[in-house]
Design brief:
Blueprint lengths: L13 H6 L3 H27 L11 H8 L3 H12 L3 H18 L8 H7 L5 H12 L3 H11 L1
Helix pairs in contact: 5-6, 5-7
C-alpha cells in the first residue's frame, strides 16, 4: 500500500483539490507540528545550556516537563522523536559533553575526574565513566590522557 506524503506540490494536483478539499488544512497542521517540535527542541537545549539543569543529579522528566509547562508523556515522546534517544540518554549526553569541555579547559590539569563528574550532575563516577564511554568510545581518563599527550 502506498501512502501519501503531505507536501506543497500536492496542492497543485487537481485530483487532490477535487477529492481532498481539506488537504491544505492537513498540510498546515503538519507544518505547525513541525514548528512546535523545533520550538521544543530549542527550549530543551536552552534548559541544558543556559539554565544548566543537567547539573541537578536528581533531575527527572517531571522536573523538565514542569519547567516547560508540558505533559511528561508528550515530552518523553518528543525527546525520543527529536533526539532519537530516551530521556536519560539525552541528559547523560548533555552531561558528558559538558564534562568534555571542562576536561579540555585551560585549568583542567589539576581537576580530578570525580570532581568533574559531580560538577556535571552524575551521582557516581561509574555512571559517568559508562556514559562517557558510550558517547565517545573511550573512558574519560583515556580521553584526558590523550589530550595531555597532544600538548
Amino acid at each position: 500500500m502506498r501512502y501519501f506524503e503531505l507536501r506543497d506540490v500536492n496542492l497543485k494536483d487537481p485530483f487532490m483539490n477535487e477529492f481532498f478539499p481539506r488537504y491544505k488544512d492537513l498540510l498546515f497542521i503538519k507544518i505547525r507540528e513541525k514548528a512546535t517540535a523545533n520550538s521544543l527542541k530549542d527550549k530543551l537545549n536552552n534548559l541544558m545550556n543556559e539554565k544548566q539543569m543537567y547539573k541537578n543529579s536528581s533531575l527527572t522528566l517531571d522536573n523538565i516537563s514542569r519547567e516547560l509547562a508540558t505533559n511528561r508523556t508528550y515530552l518523553s515522546k518528543e525527546i525520543n522523536s527529536l533526539f532519537k534517544m530516551g530521556f536519560r540518554d539525552y541528559i547523560n549526553k548533555s552531561r558528558v559533553e559538558k564534562a568534555k569541555e571542562l576536561m579540555s579547559g585551560a585549568n583542567s590539569e589539576g581537576i580530578n575526574l570525580l570532581v568533574i563528574s559531580e560538577k556535571v550532575g552524575f551521582r557516581n563516577y561509574g555512571t559517568f565513566n559508562t556514559a562517557f564511554k558510550k558517547e565517545f568510545g573511550i573512558t574519560p581518563w583515556e580521553w584526558k590522557r590523550k589530550g595531555r599527550l597532544k600538548n
